[in-house]
């Protein structure tokens, strides 16, 4: 009898929960006159008689399932004139709660709770505040279709406690961390999310359907917020830093050891309720992690990740249209002029231009108009050279440069938008200037099921020669449901060039892509999630029209019940006309190729986990083969200490590519190549506010040419019979150590100590043996740097309160 009652009860619960999924949840706002103590202990009287948000829905592994009673979540929210206060009780077995200590803005192997708010309730933009069971904070901004900007940082308070019922959390979010209107009565978009790491379970208070495109648009509602006023948002973050650098130049008149002191300040000012000014004056980016440099044998530039916080935080408006590659500003400039160097020997080449200042103004009006203004100025770059007589001099290789971006982004109904964006690069002197303008649109139907988006772009380069180029793109399809599809077309003429402030590999193309996805989010008896895709690419050169390439690609991804996952994909590329490999515009008839890959990822909740991938690709010509074996392993000793090791081995055999030029003729070679990349990382986190990390990376890659060929006018290769070629083999090594200690000694304030070691060798042929290359790079001249930086956060309102108390 009990069994039938239980079954009947479960059926009722399933029916009720099914009804609740489609209904938007609401939580009544309650004002408090008593400020809770943010200590993680939920015993403040103000929490009594406050509406409770509970009955969270899973998004994974069982979308729509209501959380169980013994794993239930209870959330409460209060507000007053200065802040929002959050109460969170997460029921669980105390010994099962994951709580690894990691640095701020990381989750690690830990459970978390979060609150996501949409103060303007436009269902497009929001702010998320996450706290792990170890007390680590993570915050992010969310834009129209659920894009997460994890680089956004705010200053707020939180505290957690573990007890016999699970764990608890209290949060204080000051209004200075948010943007909202000054209306007397407001309704905010609201959602809560919880993750249980060991079972990879994530739940939301208001159901977020994985089959529906978007995230913020599936929020709940916080109603009846009364009489709150946006505060003056003004903060200063002055810093000082000191560096000692040693490099064995060993040249007369050039010091091996140098030192420098820096000072500057970041300023954040709320211009009004909606717009914020961010400014960095004489910034210091010397402590950011080193770029992972590689031996690049392709005709295209390598794109690196941006690690400088100012250029990653709050840049969602400027990233629209793919016209903003922030590494152009200081780190990887697009313009170098070595005409003044001549035949002189380069002694010291400046690879980064000093950023003198940078400013961002961004925000969105109550009517949904987003406005972004960006400006940055970099100093001139100089290269030190030595002439035949041993005289040293400096040559300007890049002038003083000004970078600008202007964006207008109008939000429309149904998560749609229309955007105007302009980027402008102005250089001092005779160097050319660049301007790019784009119009973008993104339209969704009422149910957010179908979409169409597109762009029109124009580039204008002005200097000794003037050129104007054009590009357009259009894409439409189905974006919600289990079955998804899209068709896209991209065009660029032979003069379109946005690379002065953007990242762009080539122009003069007409690409068409047909894309299909079939996803199953409902678990079965053996998997939690099954995803699959298939796409077809057809590309032509635009001017003059000519076939370029055709490829098909596809494969499935599955997450198993044990939380391991696997992905298999295959790709076939037909014989193609490659107009870029020759470096002179001549066509190269590249052979057809095919490849496949297998990716294995473990259950990362385990203290020791490992995974990796195997990839294979074969070229028809000379039966060229490429293998890639990647293996990683992670070991978590305890919640404070963890290690990681990544090993990558990538051998190529009988591959054919361009190697050099002889006059206007392109020379190709058949070669073997071996690439080995090993990296080791470790972290020791003392508390949720203090810890250190270290990353060691060694990269070795070579090119051993076996035969040479001449590219014929018809695009085929013929045996090279010219003068003997030499010096074209390559052997490149790079070694880096990045060690940094960080202490957040006050809200928003940090002390960081960084040690860096870097070495690079090129065209130095040791041996084919890996250990000899490692020994060689370790014995090569090392560039060592030790730095200390102190940044102190000052909130003007807090400073004002302290002054009043003193008076």
UniProtKB/TrEMBL annotation:
Domain spans labelled Carbohydrate-binding: 38-215
One biological process term in Gene Ontology: carbohydrate catabolic process
Record-linked CDD domains: CBM9_like_2
Pfam families per record: CBM9_1, DUF5916
Domain DUF5916, chain residue ranges per copy: 230-802
Keyword DNA repair in record: no
Signal peptide: 1-18
The entry's keywords: Signal
UniProt name for this protein: Uncharacterized protein
Molecular-function GO terms, alphabetical: carbohydrate binding; hydrolase activity, hydrolyzing O-glycosyl compounds
Superkingdom of this protein's organism: Bacteria
SUPFAM superfamilies: CBD9-like (SSF49344)
């Amino acid at each position: 009898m009990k069994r039938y009652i239980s079954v009947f009860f479960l059926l009722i619960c399933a029916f009720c929960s099914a009804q609740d999924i489609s209904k938007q949840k609401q939580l009544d706002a309650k004002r408090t006159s008593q400020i809770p103590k943010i200590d993680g202990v939920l015993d403040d009287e103000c929490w009594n008689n406050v509406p409770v948000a509970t009955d969270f829905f899973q998004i994974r592994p069982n979308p729509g399932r209501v959380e169980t009673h013994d794993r239930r979540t209870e959330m409460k929210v209060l507000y007053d004139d200065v802040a929002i206060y959050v109460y969170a009780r997460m029921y669980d077995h105390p010994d099962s709660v994951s709580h690894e200590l990691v640095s701020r803005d990381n989750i690690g192997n830990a459970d978390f709770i979060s609150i996501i708010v949409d103060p303007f309730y436009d269902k497009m933009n929001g702010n998320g505040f996450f706290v792990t069971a170890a007390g680590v904070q993570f915050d992010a901004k969310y834009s129209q279709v659920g894009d997460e900007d994890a680089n956004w940082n705010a200053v707020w308070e939180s505290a957690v406690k573990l007890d016999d019922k699970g764990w608890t959390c209290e949060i204080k979010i000051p209004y200075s961390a948010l943007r909202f209107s000054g209306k007397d009565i407001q309704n905010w978009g609201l959602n809560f999310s919880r993750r249980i790491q060991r079972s990879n379970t994530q739940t939301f208070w208001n159901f977020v359907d994985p089959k529906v495109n978007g995230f913020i648009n599936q929020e709940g509602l916080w109603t009846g917020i009364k009489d709150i006023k946006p505060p003056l948002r003004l903060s200063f973050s002055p810093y000082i830093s000191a560096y000692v650098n040693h490099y064995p130049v060993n040249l007369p008149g050039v010091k091996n050891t140098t030192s420098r002191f820096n000072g500057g300040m970041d300023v954040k000012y709320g211009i009004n309720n909606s717009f914020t000014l961010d400014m960095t004056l004489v910034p210091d980016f010397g402590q950011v992690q080193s770029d992972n440099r590689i031996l690049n044998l392709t005709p295209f530039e390598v794109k690196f990740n941006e690690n400088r916080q100012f250029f990653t935080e709050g840049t969602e408006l400027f990233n629209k249209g793919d016209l903003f590659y922030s590494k152009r500003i200081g780190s990887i400039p697009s313009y170098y002029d070595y005409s003044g160097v001549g035949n002189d020997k380069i002694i010291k080449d400046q690879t980064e231009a000093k950023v003198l200042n940078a400013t961002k103004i961004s925000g969105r009006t109550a009517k949904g108009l987003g406005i972004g203004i960006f400006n940055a100025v970099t100093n001139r770059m100089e290269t030190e050279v030595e002439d035949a007589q041993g005289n040293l001099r400096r040559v300007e290789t890049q002038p003083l440069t000004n970078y600008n971006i202007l964006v207008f982004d109008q939000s429309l109904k149904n998560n749609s938008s229309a955007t105007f964006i302009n980027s402008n690069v102005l250089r001092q002197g005779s160097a050319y200037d660049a301007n790019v303008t784009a119009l973008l649109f993104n339209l969704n139907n009422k149910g957010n099921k179908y979409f169409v988006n597109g762009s029109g772009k124009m580039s204008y380069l002005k200097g000794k020669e003037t050129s104007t180029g054009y590009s357009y793109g259009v894409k439409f399809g189905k974006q919600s449901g289990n079955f998804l599809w899209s068709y896209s077309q991209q065009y660029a003429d032979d003069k379109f060039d946005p690379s002065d402030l953007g990242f762009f590999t080539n122009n003069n193309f007409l690409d068409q892509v047909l894309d299909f996805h079939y996803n199953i989010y409902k678990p079965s008896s053996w998997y939690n999630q099954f995803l699959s895709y298939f796409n077809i690419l057809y590309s032509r050169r635009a001017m003059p029209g000519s076939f370029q390439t055709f490829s098909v690609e596809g494969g499935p991804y599955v997450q198993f019940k044990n939380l391991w996952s696997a992905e298999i994909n295959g790709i076939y590329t037909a014989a193609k006309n490659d107009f870029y490999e020759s470096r002179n515009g001549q066509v190269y008839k590249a052979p057809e190729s095919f490849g496949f890959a297998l990716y294995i990822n473990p259950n990362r909740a385990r203290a020791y986990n490992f995974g990796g991938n195997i990839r294979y690709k074969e070229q028809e010509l000379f039966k060229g083969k490429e293998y890639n074996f990647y293996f990683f392993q992670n070991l978590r000793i305890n919640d404070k200490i963890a290690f990681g090791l990544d090993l990558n081995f990538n051998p190529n055999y009988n591959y054919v590519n361009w190697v050099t030029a002889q006059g206007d003729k392109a020379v190709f070679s058949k070669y073997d190549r071996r690439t080995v990349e090993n990296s080791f990382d470790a972290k020791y986190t003392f508390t949720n506010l203090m810890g250190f990390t270290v990353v060691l990376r060694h990269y070795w890659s070579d090119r051993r040419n076996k035969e040479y060929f001449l590219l014929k006018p018809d695009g085929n290769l013929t045996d090279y019979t010219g003068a003997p070629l030499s010096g074209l083999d390559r052997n490149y090594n790079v070694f880096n150590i990045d060690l940094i200690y960080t202490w957040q000694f006050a809200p928003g304030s940090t002390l960081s100590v960084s040690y860096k070691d870097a070495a690079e060798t090129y065209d130095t042929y040791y041996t084919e043996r890996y250990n000899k290359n490692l020994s060689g790079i370790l014995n090569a001249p090392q560039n060592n740097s030790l730095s200390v930086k102190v940044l102190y956060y000052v909130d003007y309102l807090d400073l004002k309160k302290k002054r009043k108390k003193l008076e």
